[in-house]
Design brief:
By secondary structure, this protein is of the alpha/beta class. The chain is built from 11 helices and 9 strands.
């Protein structure tokens, strides 16, 4: 062993660009460069222009659920490959890569929690898992969350971030649109609220099914929401699209959504809506107010 080889063993291995940690965040809207702690306490909202950057599913859960209240269900459900689908890669390989990258077996995290003290069933899409696409497992998790909400007489909150139905499952994925929509009818018949939160992006089969069936539909500023992509629509109709087309502000102006809420106010807004739409919650609060007035 030569001296160069001997001392080379003591050299610290350099991290690759992908492995090296980055403490700086660049806003994709105003291009401002910020230290990560500068936006961390703002829930990944740019302090310069107010742009809402994408956050992970776990960050979303921590934002909405009361501390240590979230209990996950159905985490063991995992997709299979019924069609033996292969494009540039096999579907099995794409699933294994997504599991390796996210540590999860599907694009949906579902469970029970409390939101400002209100027991709720919460479903959050993870866009990092195959673009948050809707497959058989994702649809099954949503239906089970609805069933738990009915059984426990609780409200349901679904936070969508998806590119649409999963093409690798073809009709199996498309069936989840009707499956989840039918289950939400049972929730409505039970008089329980469904709050739909659309985040950037919510597209395709998700926006064409349960995402638009909420008793109240809430979005974050600047979120991209629609069915087909803008390029496809433009090529189909042969005309230029309006300014801000498929953005949250455009949809609000044209009556397709109910409200746009800043991320730091989302939790309070959702808890207020759960109380407003859930007769049981509203009744308890009303009785408490009466008791306080009588005591006074």
């Amino acid at each position: 062993m030569g001296f160069s080889e001997f001392f080379g063993n003591f050299r610290k291995k350099q991290s690759s660009p992908k492995e090296a940690p980055s403490h700086w965040v660049k806003c994709s809207k105003c291009q401002s460069l910020m230290y990560f702690k500068e936006i961390e306490h703002l829930f990944n909202v740019c302090p310069k222009c107010g742009f809402h950057m994408r956050i992970t599913a776990l960050e979303r859960i921590n934002l909405l659920a009361d501390q240590d209240s979230f209990v996950e269900f159905d985490s063991s459900l995992a997709p299979i490959d019924p069609l033996k689908f292969v494009d540039k890669k096999s579907y099995k390989k794409r699933i294994s890569e997504a599991i390796k990258n996210t540590g999860r077996t599907s694009a949906v995290i579902s469970g029970g929690c409390s939101i400002n003290g209100i027991n709720t069933q919460l479903v959050v899409f993870d866009f990092k898992f195959m673009g948050g696409s809707l497959g058989s497992v994702e649809g099954e998790k949503i239906v089970r969350a609805i069933s738990r909400a009915i059984k426990n007489e609780e409200g349901l909150v679904i936070v969508s971030a998806s590119g649409g139905a999963r093409m690798q499952e073809s009709t199996f994925a498309l069936l989840q649109m009707s499956k989840t929509s039918a289950a939400l009818t049972k929730l409505s018949d039970a008089g329980l609220p469904f709050i739909s939160v659309l985040t950037d992006p919510t597209m395709g089969g998700v926006s064409a099914s349960f995402a638009w069936l909420g008793d109240i539909i809430i979005t974050e500023p600047g979120s991209l929401i629609g069915f087909a992509g803008q390029r496809v629509i433009k090529q189909t109709i042969g005309a230029d699209l309006p300014q801000g087309f498929q953005r949250a502000e455009f949809l609000l102006e044209h009556g397709l959504i109910d409200m746009i809420i800043q991320r730091n106010k989302m939790k309070d807004c959702i808890s207020d809506m759960l109380i407003f739409f859930n007769k049981n919650c509203a009744k308890v609060d009303f009785q408490d107010d009466q008791e306080l007035e009588m005591q006074a």
